[in-house]
């Protein structure tokens, strides 16, 4: 008998900080991509309304705010809600749905890494 099992170490000096940084980086990149996507979406889909542009800007701002709040335990859940909202914005334009799918997959991977590292 070897005694109680020790939790598996990740090899990181500060695993919580590393995971928070991953979440913040993911949301920051998402916010940046959303802002940079506005003009190409307008050029490709001339029917992009002011409400759709406002929605994209609001989602980008929300992503940037959440990136700065990753120390809060609820921020991971809010990030998941953000991905759902981005997927729903696909009703405004098909390219937003594509971005929503891509970032939902990236966010899912970040959640997976969080679960593996932190347990």
Automatic annotation (TrEMBL):
**Record keywords, A-Z:** Membrane, Transmembrane, Transmembrane helix
Q: Which domain of life is it from?
A: Bacteria
User: Matching InterPro entries, A to Z?
Assistant: DUF4233
Q: Where are the transmembrane segments?
A: 48-69, 81-110
> What is this protein's name?
DUF4233 domain-containing protein
């Amino acid at each position: 008998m070897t005694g109680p099992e020790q939790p598996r170490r990740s090899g990181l000096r500060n695993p919580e900080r590393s995971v928070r940084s991953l979440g913040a980086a993911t949301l920051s990149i998402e916010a940046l991509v959303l802002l940079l996507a506005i003009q190409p979406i307008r050029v490709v889909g001339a029917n992009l309304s002011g409400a759709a542009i406002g929605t994209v800007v609001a989602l980008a701002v929300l992503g940037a705010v959440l990136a700065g709040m990753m120390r809060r335990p609820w921020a991971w859940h809010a990030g998941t809600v953000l991905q759902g909202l981005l997927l729903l914005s696909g009703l405004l334009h098909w390219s937003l749905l594509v971005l929503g799918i891509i970032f939902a997959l990236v966010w899912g991977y970040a959640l997976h890494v969080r679960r593996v590292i932190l347990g």
